Amino acid sequence: MHESKELERQLPLALRAAYMALHRSTEAAFAKHGVTADQFVLLLTLSKVRALTQRELADRISSDPSTVRAMLVLLEKSGYIDRDSHPTDARAKTVSLTVAGRRKLRTLWNVGQPIRDELYGAMTPEEAELLLSLLRKVARSFQQERSLS
Amino acid sequence: MHESKELERQLPLALRAAYMALHRSTEAAFAKHGVTADQFVLLLTLSKVRALTQRELADRISSDPSTVRAMLVLLEKSGYIDRDSHPTDARAKTVSLTVAGRRKLRTLWNVGQPIRDELYGAMTPEEAELLLSLLRKVARSFQQERSLS
DNA sequence: TATTGTTATACTCTATAACTATA
DNA sequence: TATAGTTATAGAGTATAACAATA
Question: What are the structural domains, with CATH classification, of chain B?
Answer without folding.
Answer: 31-148 (1.10.10.10)
